[in-house]
């Protein structure tokens, strides 16, 4: 089973998110970088499938040269090949990103059995790159998946059963392979990288491609922190002494009737 | 021109809440350029009542259905919407010369709720038509033909993006948790968007007629390859997404055994327990209880956040709560600057005392 997982380098945000003075980017001078959480689970899922059924896992990203660091993080989890679609760091739109990924994984003749993505990037939240890649490659696609089962026919993987919960009902999709699937956190609990894994990742060669692109119709003008951020809570008290005030508040809110 | 909104329907009848909020944003977009508002759903014509549509300001409506399209099929749904938008009478195949959707070009935008279904269907629609798509919009207004000004969420709402979408047909999904529930009825939004429109029919009087037409889509080969099989076993009990009260637990709970008092309090308040990402990453509680950017977005009346620091990832999931009360040992924790009320103290002392105090009030 040959699996390619697409990941994205995003800032690691903790308690607050800051915008650069020009209002166009997240200020990352004080933060590190990671991959979107859904994507870490996609890599874990791919590695588990490859461990179970054989085959190998490729990780692919589109981003600046520094995004090779995120590929190495994923190689340390058990992926064996890393591909960087290198950019100058400008934010690509989803259509251009999908074009570059589809081209890199083989255009019309995909050599992978399964292309895995995270459901949406943590930063831009565009929800569409996997679907656009699937259309460019002529493959079936489903998104938001929290359960994956590969169904073999003989010694070949033939189909997958992909499931998710939607509005209290479980939806199960039966897709022929090759296919494109995006997953959500919760599908598994990603492992910590092992020491041998890290050493292997450090030495691994990252294949680099420099695709070209054009902007699509959605143009970012400005980023801002939502109004209301940075307000201060009214402190009801300290420890158990605050309980009467807390009970009064719950009563006022109509929670105790 | 017309703004078309996809309505997801509830098994019990009517449009789901997220769709009705998406309809409010679609109505704002239509109102910004004196365009018509139309709605479409998959299923029988009677799935959404004419009264519900009229109250939301909808002028025309289509129920999309055919024998082969009984369940949820993302690509087939997108194909059907493309056909309807090209030509609501015949759904004739798109003529590329007539623009991305072909037909008469009567549609200026297609809007859906940013749910798993809404995002997925509009992404397919974008891929079929070659149009850009903007997910998680909070508001939209027409500034010129083929151009919309959008406000959309990034980082699940922790950051707001002002953007311009240039496209002959705008494809938008709406972040439902950012649209207030009281915007769903037409009168509220029309008053806000077009203050000078007095005397025009507001559509909220209930006497407006909305006739629902049935649209039979023409599907292409392979459109039904991906089709949902639904299992009937709905989870019983109150769901996290729709709970009126959520009692949240974070790292401060200390371990899997610490949640008993949170469960007891949630039970007393008629609510459910939610948790932060660290709790699910540690395996203390199942992922389906996670409140946050990568878990569930909640919109309760009351969110009681206990032992939760208030990271961006978590706040993205609970910013739709009406009132947030934090219980935390650290008065400098981010949650204290984001909550409405705070108790500075150890949840292991405060919660048992709170449970006893609530019990003492009840006979």
Descriptive report:
- The complex is a heterodimer of chains A (257) and B (363).
- Chain A is of the alpha/beta class and 257 residues long.
- Chain A has a single domain, classed as HUPs (Rossmann fold, 3-Layer(aba) Sandwich), CATH 3.40.50.
- Chain A has helices at residues 37-53, 68-75, 94-104, 129-137, 195-203, 243-252; strands at 2-7, 9-11, 33-35, 56-63, 81-86, 114-118, 141-145, 147-153, 156-166, 169-176, 179-183, 206-209, 218-224, 234-238.
- In chain A, the strands form 3 sheets. Chain A has a 7-stranded parallel β-sheet, with helices on both faces. In chain A, strands 8-9-10 form a 3-stranded antiparallel β-sheet, covered by helices on one side. Chain A has a two-stranded antiparallel ribbon with strand order 2-3.
- In chain A, helix 2 (68-75) links the parallel strand 4 (56-63) and strand 5.
- The mean pLDDT of chain A is 94.
- Chain B is of the alpha/beta class and 363 residues long.
- Chain B folds into 2 domains: 2-215, HUPs (Rossmann fold), CATH 3.40.50; 245-361, TPP-binding domain (Rossmann fold, 3-Layer(aba) Sandwich).
- Helix content of chain B is 27%, strand content 24%.
- Chain B has a 9-stranded mixed β-sheet, with helices on both faces. Chain B has a 5-stranded parallel β-sheet with strand order 12-11-13-14-15.
- In chain B, a hairpin with a 2-residue loop joins strand 5 and strand 6 (147-154).
- In chain B, helix 6 (260-268) packs parallel to helix 10 (347-361).
- Chain B is elongated, with a radius of gyration of 23 Å.
- In chain B, 57% of the residues are buried.
- Chains A and B meet through helix 4, strand 7, strand 9, strand 10 and strand 13 of A and helix 4, strand 5, strand 6, strand 7 and strand 10 of B.
- Strand 10 of chain A pairs antiparallel with strand 10 of chain B.
């Amino acid at each position: 089973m040959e699996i390619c997982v697409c990941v994205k380098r995003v800032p690691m945000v903790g308690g607050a998110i800051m915008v650069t003075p020009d209002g166009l980017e997240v200020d990352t001078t004080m933060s590190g970088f990671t991959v979107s959480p859904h994507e870490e689970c996609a890599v874990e899922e791919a590695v588990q499938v490859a461990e179970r059924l054989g085959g190998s896992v490729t990780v692919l990203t589109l981003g600046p040269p520094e995004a090779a660091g995120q590929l190495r993080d994923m190689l340390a989890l058990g992926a064996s090949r890393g591909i960087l679609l290198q950019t100058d760091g400008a934010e690509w739109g989803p259509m251009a990103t999908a074009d570059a990924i589809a081209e890199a994984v083989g255009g019309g003749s995909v050599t992978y059995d399964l292309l895995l993505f995270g459901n949406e990037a943590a930063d831009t939240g565009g929800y569409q790159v996997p679907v656009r890649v699937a259309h460019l490659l002529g493959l079936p696609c489903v998104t938001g998946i929290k359960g994956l089962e590969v169904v073999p026919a003989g010694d070949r993987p033939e189909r997958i059963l992909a499931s998710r919960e939607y509005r209290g009902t479980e939806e199960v999709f039966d897709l022929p392979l090759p296919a494109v699937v995006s997953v959500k956190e919760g599908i598994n609990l990603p492992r910590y990288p092992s020491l041998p894994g890290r050493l292997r990742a450090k030495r691994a060669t990252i294949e680099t491609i420099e695709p070209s692109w054009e902007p699509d119709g959605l143009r970012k003008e400005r980023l801002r922190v939502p109004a209301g951020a940075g307000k201060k809570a009214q402190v009801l008290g300290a420890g158990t002494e605050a309980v009467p005030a807390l009970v009064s508040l719950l009563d006022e809110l109509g929670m105790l009737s | 021109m017309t703004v078309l909104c996809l309505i997801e329907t509830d098994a019990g009848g009517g449009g789901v809440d997220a769709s009705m909020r998406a309809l409010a944003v679609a109505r704002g977009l239509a109102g910004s350029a004196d365009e018509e508002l139309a709605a479409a759903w998959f299923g029988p014509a009677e799935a959404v009542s004419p009264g519900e549509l009229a109250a939301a300001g909808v002028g025309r409506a289509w129920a999309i259905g055919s024998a082969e399209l009984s369940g949820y099929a993302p690509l087939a749904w997108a194909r059907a919407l493309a056909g309807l938008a090209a030509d609501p009478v015949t759904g004739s195949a798109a003529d590329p010369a007539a623009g991305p959707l072909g037909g008469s070009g009567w549609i200026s935008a297609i809007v859906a709720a940013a749910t798993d279904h809404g995002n997925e269907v509009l992404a397919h629609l974008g891929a079929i038509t070659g149009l850009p798509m903007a997910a998680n919009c909070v508001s939209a207004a027409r500034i010129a033909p083929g151009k919309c000004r959008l406000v959309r969420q990034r980082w699940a709402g922790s950051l707001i993006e002002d953007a311009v979408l240039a496209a002959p047909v705008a494809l938008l999904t709406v972040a439902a948790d950012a649209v207030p529930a009281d915007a769903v009825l037409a009168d509220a939004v029309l008053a806000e968007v077009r203050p000078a429109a007095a005397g025009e029919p507001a559509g909220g009087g209930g006497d407006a007629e909305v006739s629902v037409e049935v649209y039979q889509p023409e599907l292409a080969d392979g459109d039904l390859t991906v089709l949902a099989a639904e299992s009937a076993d709905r989870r019983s009990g109150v769901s996290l997404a729709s709970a009126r009260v959520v009692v949240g637990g974070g790292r401060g709970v200390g371990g899997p055994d610490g949640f008993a008092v949170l469960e007891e309090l949630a039970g007393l308040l008629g609510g459910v327990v939610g948790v932060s990402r660290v709790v699910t990453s540690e395996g203390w509680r199942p992922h389906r209880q996670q409140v946050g950017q990568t878990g569930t977005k909640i919109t309760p009346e009351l969110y009681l956040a206990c032992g939760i620091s208030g990271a961006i990832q978590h706040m993205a999931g609970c910013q739709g709560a009406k009132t947030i009360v934090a219980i935390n040992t650290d008065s400098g924790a981010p949650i204290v600057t984001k909550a409405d009320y705070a108790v500075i103290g150890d949840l292991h002392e405060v919660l048992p005392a709170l449970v006893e105090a609530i019990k003492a009030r009840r006979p």
